[in-house]
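Protein: Thermosome subunit
Species: Haloplanus salinus
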Amino acid sequence: MSAMATSAPRPASSRQIASPMPRLPPVTTARVSCRSIPHFVPGDWHKSTVGAYGTGRRTERRPGAPRNLKSGGRSEDWSVTRPQGSGGGTQYRPITMSHDGGRTETSVDRIMAEGRASGSDRRSVVQGNVAAATLVADIVETTLGPRGRDKVVYRKPEKEEEGLDDYFQVTNSGAYILKNVPFEAPAASMVARVAAAQDDRHGDGTTTATVYAGRILAAAGDLIERGFHPRTVIDGIDGAVPLIDDAIDVAAVPVDDGDRDRVADVVHTTLGGTVAEPLADRLVAWIHDAAADGSLDPETVHAESLRAGSLSDSEFVDGLVLKKSFAGNYQPSSLTDATIAMTTQAVTASQQVGGRVESDAGADAGKTQSLQVSATDAADLQRFTEYERGVIAERVQPLVDAGVDVLLAANRVDEDTVAHLDRHGIAVVRNADEARLRALAAATDGTLLPHLGAFEASDAGTVGGITRREYPEVEQEAIFLRNLPGNLASVLLHGSTWMAGWEAKRNVNAAVAAAASALETGQIVPGGGATEMAIAGHLRDAAPGVGGRESMVIEAIADAVEAVPRLLARNAGMDPTDAILDLRTAHSRGEKDASVLGLKRELGHALDAGVVEPAAFKRGSVYTAAGAATTVLRIDDVITGIDVTVSESP
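Structure follows.
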């Protein structure tokens, strides 16, 4: 029996159909440029219900139909549309798409007055964001641990006097990298900013937080590809955070006020493998003296770097060190029982001549006012000069009456004012760091004034001794303020290059922050990935009790957290797979501090080896990573090209 020949119905279109063209392939690359994150172009997502083609209709591909036909400069997919729940005939309608730089234009774009949106292709937005955020973790993960590698970060010179070697920085600081690399992809930029905030809050732990976020998002991307809804993944992440908190509590070891050994372990762990490691013992002894009462405020400890000598020449000072010189001709080499005045505002003749502007508090706000003077002859100019000098004398007279020896300003002080203060034996330090002046004011019972017009004798601070020291080999000076009434300490780090001193300064600040955190919270946790292994084990044990798809998310997060010991082993030159298997076995036997000892390139017990971290750092990294991951996963659309004008409210 011969088969009857049937003709396929013709498409309902009057366009001339051109020859078939191949479909644009989906993006499958594992690494995505941080400057341009292409969207994934799914191959068959148009099979789902699409409202643009009529409510209640299901769209599917006609068997044997070409995948892409070109007509009128647009790519078209011919598909079959059947009304659901009816036995009606089959109609063929075109699904129009145009591709621009890896994204798909949809009907959403055509209803917007300006800009473009990703429209119905929302799963590609999620996957693109995940790829971008994962790239951020890829950048910094090789810096993790004492055997981590360095990065070269190019930057613009901040000051004209910086040398050619200052156009780039060699560092393994995750915070510095994330704050200075210009990510253009919104998701990458968000993760970088959120992770860098870990450094602002805790002083360290940025790389760990970034690795957590990147690996959690990578696991989330895999789950979404398997059909999980992003909201389900977010709920699973939110449910995992308290479980991780519980695991950290179990792993934590108490630190008593007098437990000097554990504080020393924290400092040695932080400085291990860094350029400042040779200073660890001296820094520990210095911190013990500074924290004699069992507490340490990081705001009262300041590190300064000097491009002179070697690291072994570094100085630990009981007081404040300013890498500044005195302005003007009055250059005292030392002062005893000195009285100081401090201000944040510029002290200039032009601002003083501009008039006294009363603030809400009734004091002189000293606002700068542009002033143009026209002199017809030398006598007019002389009268103006005398008037200007009179205004300067009136402004600084309260300093003279109070017996001030040194004026420290966080801004500029003009030459006329400096010369007037010189004649009264008042030394001037200008353009000092405002944060250091704020700490100095607290330690000297003084007041950091917003302007000198509000100065009173009670605002002055007292310093037991001030010393000026010259470093002729590098043409620099430093001013030492010692014997202060309050707590204030400094480290002057010497280095043969600017970069070496800067990196040592960053390391010392991180060690001080870690010691302060351990003393404040009274808790430390085993380092070397031991805490991550404990967290992963706890999550796997708790996941079955959660139930539903959230339990699978929690198990995926357990695998993601194990990335830290895996990276520590890899960066130390060990086999990461063998290391993870051995650590799982050790933890299953109850060895809760089994870890990767990176400096020794072996597995061991973190507490016995003195490899510990502040518990607050670990908690902060978890909270930061979870917040960054859920923020990225909540995004399902990207709208670009809109000109947004921000205007102030009347």
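Remarks: The chain has three domains: 13-101, 125-254+526-633, 319-482.
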